[in-house]
Amino acid sequence: MEMNKRLFADFKSQSPEEWKEKLIVDLKGKSFDDLRWENHGITGKPFYTSNDLPPVIPQLSKEHPNTEAFGHRFWVNYQFIPVNNEKEANQKALLALQNGADGLLFELDSLADLEILFKDIELIYCHVSFRSESLSTEEIFNHYHSYLSNSAIDLNKLNGFVDGQGFHIQDIVTGLKTITLKTSAQTENYSKQIALLLGEVIDIIDHKQLEAADFFNMLSIQTHLTNDYFGEIAKHRALRLAVLKLAKTYGLEIEEPMLVSLSPQWSSEIDDPHSFMLHASTQAMAAIIGGTDGLIVNPFYKVFDKNSALAERMSRNISTILKEESYLAKNVDPSAGSYYLESMTKSLTDESIELLKSIEAKGGLSQLDLASFVESKTATV
């Protein structure tokens, strides 16, 4: 210990100002501000120090309550399954569950025959979710509940979400979230995305005259991923914090709403599976480190148009590798204490709250000129 004390005493600590002065000298006439960058409404600095940490570092650890069964950090690896034929969808679901998936997302155009769709699937051991652009959330839930009522399944052990038209408040299957909100695709600015989602929460609770506690209990949030690795980590963390802050304004201390992250469809001009895996893995890592509860990696069908099963396997394996081989499931909050990420998290959270206040001052989201809001300049964070 004495040796360590003497060793470290030889190294003088440097202040941020001293680092900046040295950097300016090394730049040889180039402006320090030229090293700043902006992306998705975030302005980054050339370096960060402990001075950039917020006074109180938020506790964003996400540890699964059943660590013996699920490990310390758990997220759902979803397989997306279109339901055109119940028997074929069932076979695809079983194959996915046997090969790394622990969640199923069924795309419905009409109410399916659930006896066929769920044949041999143990619903309590995987997350089962539904998405539909034609059916209401209430229709889907009632149809699912009718099936469950005729079975011996313990409803308290079911998990998932319903992403249909509208929303539904229910307290029958509490692990099945029947309100799904999505971050806006109309702006790439992270703080605006968060502010718009918070504004939507307020509008729904107030205009529908809902009990805030019932709303938050049924809420799941979806967000699309980008290639902005550190920005996505900060966005996920800030989104989680901002929702908790909003719940507190209603006098509620809530568990975090379900957060599901979706990788976009592969749109690069390079139709290369290796490029796809690199991009999708980076996006998935950011979501996991940021604290997502569910991950949906869209398969790269364009390259594997004659072998869709391989495309789906590759997508599933991204999450599996990050969990089992990269050990991201062993750390409940790997970005905690990072000067850079903690600073960005706080800045995004604060900026989104300020933007929300400006939205509410104008009468709420329903009265907002969305086009002007999206196009307006905001203070970079």
From TrEMBL:
Any one GO MF term held by the record is:
intramolecular transferase activity
Query: What range(s) does the Methylmalonyl-CoA mutase alpha/beta chain catalytic domain occupy?
Result: 207-367
One Pfam family this sequence matches: MM_CoA_mutase
- Highest taxon above the source species: Bacteria
Stretches that traverse the bilayer: none
Q: Which Gene3D superfamilies match?
A: Methylmalonyl-CoA mutase
PANTHER family associated with the record = METHYLMALONYL-COA MUTASE, LARGE SUBUNIT, METHYLMALONYL-COA MUTASE, MITOCHONDRIAL-RELATED
Official protein name in the record: Methylmalonyl-CoA mutase alpha/beta chain catalytic domain-containing protein
